[in-house]
Amino acid sequence: MAEEAKATATLVQALRDRGLDPSGLTPTGVRPSLAEYLGAIWERRHFIWMDAGHRVATSNSRNLLGRFWLVLRPMLEAAMYYVIFAVILGVDRGMENFPAFIIIGVLMFRSTMRAITSSPGLLSSNRAMIRAFVFPRAALAVSAQLRESMQMVYTTITVVVMIVVVPYHEFPEFTWLLVPVIFAFQFFLNLGISLVLARIGFIFPDTSNFMALTGRLFMYGSGVIFPIDRFVENNPLIATLIQANPIYHMLAMYREVLMDGTVPALEHWMILGAWAIGLTLFGLLFFWQGEETYGAEQR
Fold first, then answer.
1. HEC string for the chain
2. How far apart are the C-alpha atoms of 102 and 217, rounded to whole Å?
3. Do the Cβ atoms of 298 and 123 come closer than 8 Å?
4. For residue 61, is pLDDT > 90?
5. How many other C-beta atoms lie within 10 A of the C-beta of residue 45?
6. d(CA 75, CA 111)
7. Do residues 112 and 247 make contact, with C-beta atoms less than 8 angstroms apart?
8. CA–CA separation, 220 vs 222, rounded Å?
9. What does pLDDT average to over the chain?
10. Do residues 184 and 154 lie in contact, with contact meaning Cβ atoms separated by under 8 Å?
11. Residue 160 and residue 104: Cα distance in Å, rounded?
12. Residue 7 CB coordination number (10 Å)
C-alpha cells in the first residue's frame, strides 16, 4: 500500500513538472469524510429505492405463485409454530389468545431475524456491484433493510387479517395506528444490526455460521413463540438480560397495541428507542471506518 501511494505521488509530481494539471485524477478506494459519505448516500436515494423495489418484485418471480408467497410463507410459518408449541408442547396453557401471540411474534420478528442472519454476507453477495461501480457501500445495507420493510407491508397485513379471523378474534383498536411507529423503530434497529454485521462478516467470513445460531438464540430468548417470562422467574441474571433485549420489548409493544388495545409503557419505548438510535449511529460509524477496504479482494 505504501509503495502504491509513493508511485501515485511520483506520477502526480511528474505531471506537474510537465505543466499538466493532475486535479482530474480522482482516487478510488479512499474513505471520504463522514459528511461527504452521508451526502453520497442521500444522492443515491433513487438507486437505493429502485434496487430495493426491484429485488422485492423479482424475489419470487420464478415461482408459480409469485408474490403470493409474500403472504403464504408467513402464514405457513405461524401455523407450523402453533402446531409445535400449542398442540404438541402445550405452552399455551393459561394464555387467553395464544394464536394471536404466536402470529405476532413469529411474523413481526422475521425482518429482524433476516437482518441478523443475512447481513454478514451482504458485501460478499454484492461483490460484482462493488467492483463495478463507485458508491457508498452503506447503500447496500440501507437497500437491504428497505427491501425488508417493503416485504413487511405484506407481512403486517397478514398479521392483522389473521388475528381478526383466527379465534380468539381481535378487533381493531385505535392503538393499532401505533404499529407503523413501532416498525419505524424496528427498521432502524435492523439497519444498525445490518451495518455492524456486514463489516464483521467482511472481516470474518465465518460470522455467517455463528449468526445463524445467534438468530435462533434471539428467537427463543425474546418471547417470539412462547412467553419467556415464565421460564426465567427464578434466574435473575437471565431475566436481566432479557429485559435489556430490544427485541423482547419490540414484540411486547406489538402485542400490547394489537391484542390488549393499550399504549405500550414508557419503559418499552425508551429501551427500544435507545437501541435503535444507538445501534444505527454506531453501525454507521463502524461501517464507514472500513469503507476503503470493501473493494479489496475478498476471501
1. CHHHHHHHHHHHHHHHHCCCCHHHCCCCCCCCCHHHHHHHHHHCHHHHHHHHHHHHHHCCCCCCCHHHHHHHHHHHHHHHHHHHHHHHCCCCCCCCCHHHHHHHHHHHCHHHHHHHHHHHHHHHHCHHHHHHCCCCCHHHHHHHHHHHHHHHHHHHHHHHHHHHHCCCCCCCCHHHHHHHHHHHHHHHHHHHHHHHHHHHHHHCCCHHHHHHHHHHHHHHHCCCCCCHHHHCCCCHHHHHHHHCCHHHHHHHHHHHHHHHCCCCCHHHHHHHHHHHHHHHHHHHHHHHHCHHHCCCCCC
2. 17
3. yes
4. no
5. 12
6. 15
7. yes
8. 6
9. 83
10. no
11. 9
12. 10
Q: At what angle do helices 98-108 and 138-165 cross, to 10 degrees?
A: 170
- Give the three cell numbers for residue 195: 451495518
In the numeric block, the cell 428507542 is attached to 273
Residue 182 burial (CB < 10 Å; 0-12/13-18/19+)?
A: buried
pLDDT digits (tens, 9 = 90+) for 153-163: 888 988 898 88
Q: What is the pLDDT at residue 56?
A: 78
What does the alpha-carbon distance between residue 222 and residue 208 come to, in Å, rounded to a whole number? 21
- Hey, what's the cell of 249? 420489548
Q: In this structure, what C-alpha cell is assigned to residue 279?
A: 445501534
What is the pTM (predicted TM-score) of this model? 0.84
Instruction: Indicate the residue type of 299.
Output: R
